[in-house]
Design brief:
Chain B: It comes from Candidatus Woesebacteria bacterium CG_4_9_14_3_um_filter_39_10. The complex is a heterodimer of chains A (267) and B (328). With 267 residues, chain A is mostly helical. Chain A is 72% helix and 0% strand. Chain A is built from eleven helices and no strands. In chain A, helix 1 packs across helix 6, helix 3 crosses helix 7 and helix 7 packs antiparallel against helix 10. The two termini of chain A are 32 Å apart. In chain B, helix 7 links the parallel strand 6 and strand 7. Chain B is globular, with a radius of gyration of 25 Å. Classes of the chains: A mainly alpha (267), B alpha/beta (328). Chains A and B meet through helix 1 and helix 5 of A and strand 5 and helix 4 of B.
């Protein structure tokens, strides 16, 4: 266990070694949030308006919620795995008594904590400037469900990230493009990062709910907003858990196959 | 345990995708990739005793690095048997990994943006080295390699030679019993090379560590390796003492003659290939089988002060190995 604690400490230091990168990433997040804030505030000018079951208060909570959830779920260092595979740096880990998944999970947690810290700070500032009406969930049981769905969201994203990244075992040069397409565009869109998924056609929503994507951002946030309750929560958590299981097994399977394929390139 | 490393009929094939040149070739390779099987190792066998220091030599692409990678568990053998310290390397058991180390001259494990000491501390935890051992090992390695003042310098700011020495510290903190060194002196200046060599020698002697070394540096081999394995095109051509390399592969012997008076060089050229003339010394190279006859002929027909018959220097043979000029 101590080895992962040490990795955790180094990850923190490493993040600070690239301060500018980190700051730009945060700036991007803030700009995005301001954009979404003004977009939705103008749609819901009248606090009494309700569209797709959202009033001004709830849509603004959604926008702010997404900011925090992104920091928790999407900030991950494991995007570097593809690079490590194609340039051969993964060799360093295969030679040591260290678990590669735990290594990246540790680095991800460090990254998440750092990002979360900053987004709480940013939100406080934005909150003070924009003074929005936010919805506070007080039901403890609901909050507990949020916590569970969030944990699963983190694991789901970790698995998805690893699966995409491990394609580098077979196509060392295609890693980056696949990731960009997959993570930056598709995942963000399908998980509700751009707009709430329940404004989409119902048939489309149904299909979407059987994929792992909504469980990354949308589902935990819906639970928090109280838009999903009771049996629906249980059903959602069950689907998410099934995906956690399926993706976890997929990761293990591809890893075993990929390692045999690995040729430790770059000499 | 009487054998540290056992390799038996090891075969490793790679599948590679070939790309034609230019943009057109790149696009073509996306839709119909041309695959080719590369036979990197064609059934090699050897064993190494604990404490041996063995040099692996051969031309580029002969399969040296592939062998080291297979022995350290990075590559999955296509067929054949591999055993290191009685473990199957591929299983990557922590107990096995704690006893080996692979150092590649062109790869680094140090965290690029942090001082080297941070990587050392991390390795201490990863290999679960007790604090007291860690401090003792670190102190010893740092002194031997003379890098004490650089521990807190960001790795990216170190010179190549300094970094290579730090790499060695990182790779040896856990005192591996088996050490694979792939081109450890590549790109270093003469003093840097010398330091690394002395260090390897000491490490081998002090810890009775088993070491396999690949190198293109003649001095690495002649100074360190008592036994060499010559590998070429995935096959072992020779496995034995460094000195035997000459008798096995040199088709010629060297005759050195010291003459008492000047003679016409052309007449000597009829006896053997004249390699060097600096009167009164003449150096000839003659086929092994004809050496006795040639010597007798010289003694009979020329005014000779002194005559010696020598083997071709081992360096010449090793040069030939690197150029891939040796055959079975």
């Amino acid at each position: 266990m101590k080895k992962y604690l040490q990795i955790f400490k180094l990850s923190f230091q490493q993040e600070f070694a690239y301060r500018l990168n980190f700051v730009m990433w945060r700036v991007r997040n803030i700009l995005q949030i301001i954009l979404l804030f003004f977009l939705w505030s103008s749609v819901f000018k009248d606090p009494q308006t309700e569209v797709f079951g959202y009033n001004q208060e709830k849509i603004l909570t959604y926008v702010f919620g997404i900011l925090i959830l992104r920091a928790i779920v999407f900030s991950a260092r494991a995007v570097d795995v593809a690079g490590e595979i194609s340039n051969g740096d993964i060799t360093n880990f295969l030679l040591k008594p260290v678990n590669y998944f735990k290594y990246w999970a540790t680095r991800d947690i460090a990254s998440k904590i750092l990002n979360l810290g900053f987004s709480v700070f940013e939100i406080t500032i934005l909150f003070l400037i924009l003074k929005p009406n936010l919805f506070l969930q007080t039901n403890l049981l609901t909050l507990f469900a949020v916590l569970i769905s969030l944990t699963m969201a983190v694991i789901l994203f970790f698995c998805l990230l690893f699966i995409t990244n491990m394609s580098a075992f077979w196509m060392p040069e295609n890693g980056w493009a696949a990731q960009f397409l997959f993570i930056a565009i598709i995942t963000d869109f399908l998980s509700g990062g751009v707009f709430p998924l329940d404004i989409l056609p119902l048939a489309f929503q149904k299909v979407l709910y059987s994929t792992p994507f909504p469980y990354l951002l949308f589902f935990p946030l819906q639970v928090y907003l109280g838009k999903i309750a009771g049996l629906e929560i249980i059903r959602g958590l069950a689907t998410a858990f099934t995906w956690v299981f399926i993706l976890f097994m997929t990761v293990k399977f591809i890893w075993a196959k990929g390692l045999r394929r690995y040729s430790a390139e770059g000499r | 345990m009487d054998r540290a490393i056992v390799v038996d009929r090891l075969v490793k094939n790679f599948e590679v995708t070939e790309k034609e040149k230019g943009l057109r070739g790149s696009i073509k390779s996306i839709f119909s990739p041309k695959r080719k099987i590369v036979h990197a190792l064609k059934g090699i066998s050897f064993t190494i005793q604990p404490g041996e220091l063995v040099g692996f030599i051969g031309p580029n692409g002969a399969g040296k690095t592939t062998t080291l990678k297979t022995l350290s568990g990075l590559l999955y053998p296509s067929s054949g048997f591999v055993q290191v310290l009685e473990y199957d390397p591929w299983e990557k058991k922590p107990e096995f990994l704690k006893q080996i180390s692979l150092v590649m001259g062109q790869k680094n494990q140090l965290w690029w943006d942090l001082p080297a000491i941070e990587t050392f501390e991390l390795n201490k935890e990863i290999y679960e080295i007790p604090r007291r051992d860690y401090e003792k090992n670190l102190e010893e390695l740092v002194t031997l390699l003379d890098v004490g003042k650089l521990l807190k310098t960001q790795v990216r700011r170190l010179s190549l030679g300094q970094r290579m020495r730090m790499e060695l510290v990182a790779a040896l903190l856990h005192r591996p019993k088996v050490l694979f060194l792939d081109e450890p002196t590549i790109g270093l200046d003469l003093i840097g090379q010398q330091k690394i060599r002395e260090f390897i020698y000491e490490y081998n002697r002090k810890n009775n560590a088993t070491i396999i070394l690949t190198s293109h540096n003649m001095d690495d081999l002649t100074n360190l390796a008592r036994r060499v394995i010559v590998i070429s095109a995935g096959q072992i051509l020779f496995d034995g003492a460094l000195e035997e390399l000459t008798s096995r592969f040199a088709k010629e012997k060297i005759i050195k003659v010291s003459l008492s008076e000047e003679v016409d060089i052309k007449t000597i050229e009829e006896i053997g290939k004249v390699k060097h003339v600096l009167f009164p010394e003449v150096t000839l190279s003659v086929p092994r089988s004809a050496v006795a006859v040639a010597a007798a002929e010289i003694l009979q027909n020329f005014p000779v002060n002194d005559l010696t018959i020598e083997e071709v220097p081992v360096e010449e043979i090793i040069k030939k190995v690197f150029r891939g000029e040796l055959n079975k």
